[in-house]
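== Folding task for one protein ==

=== Format: two labelled lines per protein ===

==== Paired sequence and structure tokens ====
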Amino acid sequence: MDKEAFASVVLSSTDSLYRISKSILKYDADCEDAVQEAIATGFGKLDTLRQEAYARTWLTRILIHECYSLLKRREKSAAMLAEPKEEADDKSDYSELYEALGTLKKEYRLTIVLYYLEGYSIEEIGKIMRVPAGTVKSRLSRGRRELRCIMATGDYEGGRI
């Protein structure tokens, strides 16, 4: 894949990459950092992409890895520094559904976001998350069930985004 084709993939996937990072990370600044790092990493390792048809999936996998790396770094530094307080304006930007999504386990949350919001197929999600298609189906089913329960009870305050 050449640099122009990669740039085209990045430009067409920017919003999608941000939404995926938001399903893992809490703060907008962290999401932006993760997306930028994923793009930079993808650009640097462009020669490792085997098939151009899977460029978006490959970049998404890099992003997910970067998000989890960022979370690990934050956990390590949290012992030394206090976690920054969430701004009041930040909370009002989230919909009830997004807050409810934040209370789900990360496996369920990411699977639901990739399938319903980003339109990935079950097979593509399996490749991205490195799990069998049956596991993806199970996570979708369980995630929907939990989400329905959470939305019915309104028990999503203080979510785990």
